[in-house]
Design goal:
The complex is a heterodimer of chains A (about 150) and B (about 230). Chain A is α/β, with parallel strands linked by helices. Chain A contains 4 helices and 7 strands, in the order H-E-E-E-E-H-H-E-E-H-E. Chain A has one domain. Chain A is about 30% helix and about 20% strand. In chain A, strands 1, 3, 5, 6 and 7 form a 5-stranded mixed beta sheet that branches. In chain A, strands 2-4 form a two-stranded antiparallel ribbon. Chain A is globular, with a radius of gyration of 16 Å. The model of chain A has no long low-confidence stretch (mean pLDDT about 95). Chain B has about 230 residues and is mostly helical. Chain B has 2 domains: about 70 residues, no CATH class; about 120 residues, no CATH class. Chain B has a 3-stranded parallel beta sheet with strand order 1-2-3, sandwiched between helices. The radius of gyration of chain B is 21 Å and the shape is globular. Chains A and B meet through helix 1, strand 4, helix 2, helix 3 and helix 4 of A and helix 1, strand 1, helix 2, helix 3 and helix 8 of B. Strand 7 of chain A pairs parallel with strand 1 of chain B.
Chain lengths: ~150, ~230
């Protein structure tokens, strides 16, 4: 069995945080939408604090022009070779720039967000504290749509 | 990732999750999920393939047309990992007076340096930098040979970060040496653990730490599951 399948089977048996309802926001037309990337890959610039490996609930704001970010997620259970060769496979910032240039989306957000996916099981801090704080920063930048990428 | 989608959506930001774990996503009432059965670590599916990546993004943005949720759609194309080791030659034995893993790591240094110069960044640096790889391998050799980890490391065991850095050093050097198309997912990992002296040293040290009942979690995260 492949390593990825082992991980998927393992995750399928774990409890997940409960969300009883589904929140719903309505997007503007895509050609007018400001789009941000929110990733759980733990990306950060070299001059930003690293994520620690013990369930770090913090996040890093990434500027639109940042490239060659460090992949700070602590798990050893995913491929990292692709990311170091092409950051877009995790963080499709150049693809968003192309979509904005083509007029498919309205704008690329001035800032993007990275959390580290290795979180405490309850994800309470992300739900109640750092998640809403990151959302508020994106809203302040006029972000309408977020594309969420895990590793 | 799915929990964050809830938080963002409640704040008024429309979300689409490119989920890699369907069994998690389908239990979490997430507004919009595009399930992508791609290798873990490659949520856009294929590196150096803008057309493929745009296809994934277009499918994700299509979900914004829905008027209510939860919405969970499977991306029609599956990408599989490749678990055969990367074909990357290793440096020949140079200094018989030092451990094979250290000799090997030093032989890869020029390729590693070229890789860093090309990218302008490195994943090495969580616990050690490239200059620390030889010393880190020497420590792991001692653990693998039976010394107790407290004698080698003192009270604080940081081998998860050290293992990450050694593996990153090797993988960045290997990608530089191989050149050409980016290898399939897990190929660089398979090469490191199955072909290199450092990978074998790391595995032996992990086994020794397990036997010494080193603190929980330390040994588990030194290597991917199943290795």
């Amino acid at each position: 069995m492949s390593s990825d399948q082992v991980m998927r089977d393992m995750m399928a048996t774990l409890p997940v945080p409960e969300f009883e309802s589904t929140p719903w926001a309505s997007p503007p037309p895509m050609a007018e939408a400001t789009v941000a990337i929110v990733t759980s890959a733990g990306l950060h610039r070299a001059d930003q604090d690293r994520f620690d490996g013990r369930g770090d609930v913090s996040y890093r704001m990434l500027d639109r022009g940042d490239r060659e970010l460090i992949l700070g997620h602590w798990s050893s259970n995913f491929d990292r070779a692709a990311y170091v060769s092409d950051h877009n496979v995790v963080y499709p910032i150049d693809r968003l720039e192309e979509l904005a240039a083509a007029g498919t989306i309205g704008a690329v957000a001035p800032r993007h967000v990275a959390f580290a996916g290795n979180q405490p099981d309850t994800v309470s801090e992300v739900r109640l504290d750092t998640g809403p704080a990151a959302a508020a920063e994106l809203r302040a930048d006029g972000v309408d749509v977020a594309i969420l990428t895990p590793v | 990732m799915c929990a964050l989608a809830h938080v963002l959506e409640e704040a008024g930001i429309v979300t689409v999750v490119l989920a890699s774990m369907r069994a998690v996503a389908e239990r979490m009432n997430v507004p919009r999920v595009l399930y992508c059965e791609f290798p873990l670590g490659r949520p856009l599916g294929m590196p150096d393939n803008a057309k493929f990546q745009h296809g994934v993004l277009a499918a994700a943005f299509e979900l914004l047309d829905a008027s209510s949720g939860p919405v969970l759609v499977d991306y029609p194309e599956v990408v599989e990992a490749v678990e055969t080791p990367l074909a990357c030659a290793l440096p020949p034995r140079f200094d018989p007076d030092i451990a094979p893993s250290i000799d090997e790591a030093q032989g890869l240094r020029a390729a590693y340096d070229r890789a860093v110069a090309r990218r302008g960044a490195t994943e090495v640096g969580r616990a050690i930098d490239a200059d620390g790889v030889a010393g880190a391998l020497a420590d792991l050799e001692r653990v693998a040979a039976g010394e107790h980890w407290k004698e080698v490391y003192g009270p604080r065991l940081d081998t998860i970060a050290i293992a990450h850095d050694i593996r990153a050093y090797y993988q960045e050097a290997a990608l530089e040496l191989v050149g050409g198309p980016i290898p399939g997912a897990r190929q660089a990992e398979a090469w490191f653990y199955e072909e290199t002296e450092a990978g074998k040293t790391l595995a032996a040290a992990r086994d020794a730490l397990t036997e010494q009942e080193a603190p929980g979690g330390i040994t588990f995260y030194m290597q991917p599951v199943g290795r």
